[in-house]
Design goal:
Length: 249
Protein backbone atom coordinates (compact mmCIF):
# COMPACT_ATOMS: atom_id res chain seq x y z
CA UNK A 1 0.00 0.00 0.00
CA UNK A 2 2.84 2.36 0.90
CA UNK A 3 4.52 1.62 -2.41
CA UNK A 4 1.35 2.45 -4.35
CA UNK A 5 0.93 5.72 -2.43
CA UNK A 6 4.48 6.77 -3.31
CA UNK A 7 3.88 5.95 -6.96
CA UNK A 8 0.72 8.09 -6.90
CA UNK A 9 2.65 11.08 -5.47
CA UNK A 10 5.45 10.69 -8.00
CA UNK A 11 2.98 10.54 -10.94
CA UNK A 12 1.10 13.65 -9.81
CA UNK A 13 4.25 15.65 -9.08
CA UNK A 14 5.61 14.65 -12.51
CA UNK A 15 2.43 15.89 -14.19
CA UNK A 16 2.53 19.22 -12.26
CA UNK A 17 6.18 19.76 -13.06
CA UNK A 18 5.63 18.88 -16.72
CA UNK A 19 2.66 21.25 -16.95
CA UNK A 20 4.67 24.02 -15.20
CA UNK A 21 7.57 23.60 -17.61
CA UNK A 22 5.24 23.82 -20.59
CA UNK A 23 3.56 26.86 -19.01
CA UNK A 24 6.91 28.55 -18.46
CA UNK A 25 7.85 27.89 -22.05
CA UNK A 26 4.60 29.39 -23.30
CA UNK A 27 5.01 32.39 -20.88
CA UNK A 28 8.52 33.00 -22.17
CA UNK A 29 7.35 32.96 -25.78
CA UNK A 30 4.53 35.38 -24.94
CA UNK A 31 6.93 37.81 -23.26
CA UNK A 32 9.29 37.64 -26.24
CA UNK A 33 6.42 38.64 -28.50
CA UNK A 34 5.69 41.69 -26.36
CA UNK A 35 2.91 40.45 -24.10
CA UNK A 36 2.59 42.10 -20.68
CA UNK A 37 3.33 40.30 -17.38
CA UNK A 38 -0.32 39.77 -16.44
CA UNK A 39 -1.21 38.10 -19.75
CA UNK A 40 1.91 35.92 -19.67
CA UNK A 41 1.21 34.82 -16.07
CA UNK A 42 -2.42 34.10 -16.92
CA UNK A 43 -1.36 31.91 -19.84
CA UNK A 44 1.12 30.16 -17.56
CA UNK A 45 -1.60 29.14 -15.05
CA UNK A 46 -4.06 28.23 -17.81
CA UNK A 47 -1.52 25.82 -19.35
CA UNK A 48 -0.93 24.18 -15.95
CA UNK A 49 -4.70 23.87 -15.40
CA UNK A 50 -5.22 22.34 -18.85
CA UNK A 51 -2.43 19.83 -18.16
CA UNK A 52 -4.00 18.79 -14.86
CA UNK A 53 -7.47 18.49 -16.40
CA UNK A 54 -6.11 16.43 -19.29
CA UNK A 55 -4.22 14.13 -16.90
CA UNK A 56 -7.28 13.69 -14.70
CA UNK A 57 -9.41 12.80 -17.74
CA UNK A 58 -6.86 10.19 -18.81
CA UNK A 59 -6.81 8.65 -15.34
CA UNK A 60 -10.60 8.46 -15.17
CA UNK A 61 -10.77 6.96 -18.67
CA UNK A 62 -8.17 4.36 -17.73
CA UNK A 63 -10.08 3.42 -14.59
CA UNK A 64 -13.33 3.04 -16.56
CA UNK A 65 -11.69 0.88 -19.20
CA UNK A 66 -10.07 -1.28 -16.52
CA UNK A 67 -13.42 -1.79 -14.75
CA UNK A 68 -15.05 -2.71 -18.06
CA UNK A 69 -12.28 -5.22 -18.78
CA UNK A 70 -12.73 -6.82 -15.34
CA UNK A 71 -16.48 -7.15 -15.81
CA UNK A 72 -16.05 -8.76 -19.24
CA UNK A 73 -13.42 -11.14 -17.93
CA UNK A 74 -15.56 -12.12 -14.95
CA UNK A 75 -18.53 -12.74 -17.27
CA UNK A 76 -16.40 -14.91 -19.56
CA UNK A 77 -15.06 -16.93 -16.63
CA UNK A 78 -18.61 -17.33 -15.31
CA UNK A 79 -19.79 -18.70 -18.68
CA UNK A 80 -16.88 -21.11 -18.81
CA UNK A 81 -17.68 -22.25 -15.29
CA UNK A 82 -21.33 -22.85 -16.23
CA UNK A 83 -20.30 -24.85 -19.30
CA UNK A 84 -17.83 -26.93 -17.30
CA UNK A 85 -20.45 -27.53 -14.60
CA UNK A 86 -22.91 -28.70 -17.25
CA UNK A 87 -20.28 -31.05 -18.70
CA UNK A 88 -19.45 -32.39 -15.25
CA UNK A 89 -23.11 -33.02 -14.57
CA UNK A 90 -23.43 -34.94 -17.82
CA UNK A 91 -20.36 -37.03 -16.99
CA UNK A 92 -21.47 -37.66 -13.45
CA UNK A 93 -25.03 -38.49 -14.52
CA UNK A 94 -24.74 -40.52 -17.76
CA UNK A 95 -28.27 -41.82 -17.35
CA UNK A 96 -29.62 -38.26 -17.34
CA UNK A 97 -27.51 -37.46 -20.39
CA UNK A 98 -28.90 -40.51 -22.18
CA UNK A 99 -32.43 -39.46 -21.34
CA UNK A 100 -31.77 -35.95 -22.66
CA UNK A 101 -30.26 -37.29 -25.89
CA UNK A 102 -33.14 -39.72 -26.37
CA UNK A 103 -35.62 -36.92 -25.83
CA UNK A 104 -33.82 -34.68 -28.30
CA UNK A 105 -33.63 -37.48 -30.88
CA UNK A 106 -37.33 -38.22 -30.48
CA UNK A 107 -38.08 -34.53 -30.96
CA UNK A 108 -36.01 -34.40 -34.14
CA UNK A 109 -37.76 -37.46 -35.53
CA UNK A 110 -41.13 -35.98 -34.67
CA UNK A 111 -40.28 -32.64 -36.28
CA UNK A 112 -39.15 -34.32 -39.49
CA UNK A 113 -42.16 -36.65 -39.48
CA UNK A 114 -39.98 -39.69 -40.11
CA UNK A 115 -41.94 -42.92 -40.61
CA UNK A 116 -39.48 -45.74 -39.99
CA UNK A 117 -41.88 -48.41 -41.17
CA UNK A 118 -42.45 -46.56 -44.43
CA UNK A 119 -38.69 -46.30 -45.02
CA UNK A 120 -38.26 -50.01 -44.23
CA UNK A 121 -41.02 -50.87 -46.68
CA UNK A 122 -39.48 -48.75 -49.43
CA UNK A 123 -36.03 -50.29 -48.91
CA UNK A 124 -37.54 -53.80 -48.95
CA UNK A 125 -39.31 -53.03 -52.22
CA UNK A 126 -36.04 -51.77 -53.71
CA UNK A 127 -34.25 -54.95 -52.60
CA UNK A 128 -36.97 -57.17 -54.07
CA UNK A 129 -36.87 -55.21 -57.33
CA UNK A 130 -33.08 -55.56 -57.56
CA UNK A 131 -33.31 -59.30 -56.90
CA UNK A 132 -36.03 -59.68 -59.54
CA UNK A 133 -33.98 -57.76 -62.08
CA UNK A 134 -30.94 -59.90 -61.30
CA UNK A 135 -33.00 -63.09 -61.67
CA UNK A 136 -34.48 -61.88 -64.95
CA UNK A 137 -30.97 -61.37 -66.33
CA UNK A 138 -30.01 -64.93 -65.31
CA UNK A 139 -33.18 -66.40 -66.86
CA UNK A 140 -32.78 -64.49 -70.13
CA UNK A 141 -29.17 -65.67 -70.31
CA UNK A 142 -30.20 -69.30 -69.65
CA UNK A 143 -32.92 -69.29 -72.31
CA UNK A 144 -30.61 -67.76 -74.90
CA UNK A 145 -27.83 -70.25 -74.20
CA UNK A 146 -29.92 -73.44 -74.16
CA UNK A 147 -32.79 -72.67 -76.57
CA UNK A 148 -31.14 -74.65 -79.39
CA UNK A 149 -29.82 -77.50 -77.26
CA UNK A 150 -32.66 -78.68 -75.00
CA UNK A 151 -36.39 -79.29 -75.40
CA UNK A 152 -38.91 -76.64 -74.47
CA UNK A 153 -40.03 -78.62 -71.44
CA UNK A 154 -36.45 -79.12 -70.26
CA UNK A 155 -35.70 -75.43 -70.79
CA UNK A 156 -38.60 -74.49 -68.51
CA UNK A 157 -37.38 -76.97 -65.92
CA UNK A 158 -33.83 -75.58 -66.20
CA UNK A 159 -35.11 -72.02 -65.62
CA UNK A 160 -37.00 -73.28 -62.57
CA UNK A 161 -33.76 -74.85 -61.30
CA UNK A 162 -31.95 -71.51 -61.75
CA UNK A 163 -34.69 -69.79 -59.71
CA UNK A 164 -34.22 -72.34 -56.91
CA UNK A 165 -30.44 -71.83 -57.03
CA UNK A 166 -30.81 -68.02 -56.83
CA UNK A 167 -32.98 -68.41 -53.72
CA UNK A 168 -30.66 -71.06 -52.23
CA UNK A 169 -33.53 -73.54 -52.22
CA UNK A 170 -33.44 -77.26 -52.96
CA UNK A 171 -34.64 -78.29 -56.41
CA UNK A 172 -37.93 -80.17 -56.12
CA UNK A 173 -38.89 -83.01 -58.46
CA UNK A 174 -35.31 -83.53 -59.60
CA UNK A 175 -34.95 -84.22 -63.31
CA UNK A 176 -31.82 -84.73 -65.38
CA UNK A 177 -31.74 -82.68 -68.57
CA UNK A 178 -30.33 -84.13 -71.76
CA UNK A 179 -28.37 -81.67 -73.90
CA UNK A 180 -27.53 -81.77 -77.60
CA UNK A 181 -24.11 -80.73 -78.92
CA UNK A 182 -23.03 -79.22 -75.61
CA UNK A 183 -19.83 -80.55 -74.05
CA UNK A 184 -18.99 -80.90 -70.39
CA UNK A 185 -16.91 -77.72 -70.73
CA UNK A 186 -19.99 -75.82 -71.95
CA UNK A 187 -21.93 -76.93 -68.90
CA UNK A 188 -19.01 -76.05 -66.59
CA UNK A 189 -18.89 -72.56 -68.09
CA UNK A 190 -22.63 -72.15 -67.69
CA UNK A 191 -22.29 -73.11 -64.03
CA UNK A 192 -19.41 -70.67 -63.45
CA UNK A 193 -21.29 -67.82 -65.15
CA UNK A 194 -24.35 -68.39 -62.95
CA UNK A 195 -22.16 -68.70 -59.84
CA UNK A 196 -20.30 -65.49 -60.69
CA UNK A 197 -23.62 -63.70 -61.21
CA UNK A 198 -24.82 -64.71 -57.73
CA UNK A 199 -21.66 -64.37 -55.69
CA UNK A 200 -20.78 -65.04 -52.88
CA UNK A 201 -22.53 -68.43 -53.03
CA UNK A 202 -19.89 -71.17 -52.68
CA UNK A 203 -18.74 -72.96 -55.83
CA UNK A 204 -19.57 -76.32 -54.25
CA UNK A 205 -23.23 -75.33 -54.43
CA UNK A 206 -23.15 -74.52 -58.13
CA UNK A 207 -21.28 -77.77 -58.73
CA UNK A 208 -24.07 -79.64 -56.91
CA UNK A 209 -26.59 -77.66 -58.98
CA UNK A 210 -24.93 -78.79 -62.25
CA UNK A 211 -24.66 -82.40 -61.07
CA UNK A 212 -28.35 -82.51 -60.13
CA UNK A 213 -29.46 -80.82 -63.36
CA UNK A 214 -27.53 -82.21 -66.34
CA UNK A 215 -27.45 -85.89 -67.22
CA UNK A 216 -24.10 -85.58 -69.03
CA UNK A 217 -22.16 -84.74 -65.86
CA UNK A 218 -24.37 -86.35 -63.21
CA UNK A 219 -21.94 -89.26 -62.92
CA UNK A 220 -19.07 -86.92 -61.92
CA UNK A 221 -18.37 -86.02 -58.30
CA UNK A 222 -18.82 -82.46 -57.03
CA UNK A 223 -15.08 -81.89 -56.58
CA UNK A 224 -14.32 -82.76 -60.20
CA UNK A 225 -17.04 -80.46 -61.49
CA UNK A 226 -15.85 -77.60 -59.26
CA UNK A 227 -12.24 -77.96 -60.44
CA UNK A 228 -13.25 -77.49 -64.09
CA UNK A 229 -15.72 -74.60 -63.73
CA UNK A 230 -13.34 -72.02 -65.18
CA UNK A 231 -11.35 -74.08 -67.66
CA UNK A 232 -10.22 -71.94 -70.57
CA UNK A 233 -12.43 -71.48 -73.61
CA UNK A 234 -11.58 -73.34 -76.81
CA UNK A 235 -12.60 -72.65 -80.37
CA UNK A 236 -15.23 -75.41 -80.10
CA UNK A 237 -16.73 -74.09 -76.87
CA UNK A 238 -20.33 -72.94 -77.35
CA UNK A 239 -20.95 -71.44 -73.90
CA UNK A 240 -18.14 -69.01 -73.18
CA UNK A 241 -17.00 -67.71 -69.82
CA UNK A 242 -18.94 -64.51 -69.10
CA UNK A 243 -17.70 -62.07 -66.46
CA UNK A 244 -20.92 -60.04 -66.53
CA UNK A 245 -24.23 -61.49 -67.68
CA UNK A 246 -25.63 -58.00 -68.27
CA UNK A 247 -23.12 -57.67 -71.12
CA UNK A 248 -24.31 -60.87 -72.77
CA UNK A 249 -26.06 -60.44 -76.13
Amino acid sequence: MKHNYQDFIVQNVSVIIGSALIGLGVRFVMLEKGADQFTANSIFWIVILIGLVFYTALVLLGVSLFDLYKRLRNKTNSNKLDIQTDIDERVINPRDATEINSSENAKVLEENNVDTNAIRKIQHQKKVQQENEKLQIALDYTRNQFALYVSGEDLDWLCNAVICYSKKENILDSKLIETKELSNLDLYHFGWNIWNHYRPIKQEQVAEFLKATFKKINVLDVGTIKSHLKDSDTKDTIIKLQENLTDYK
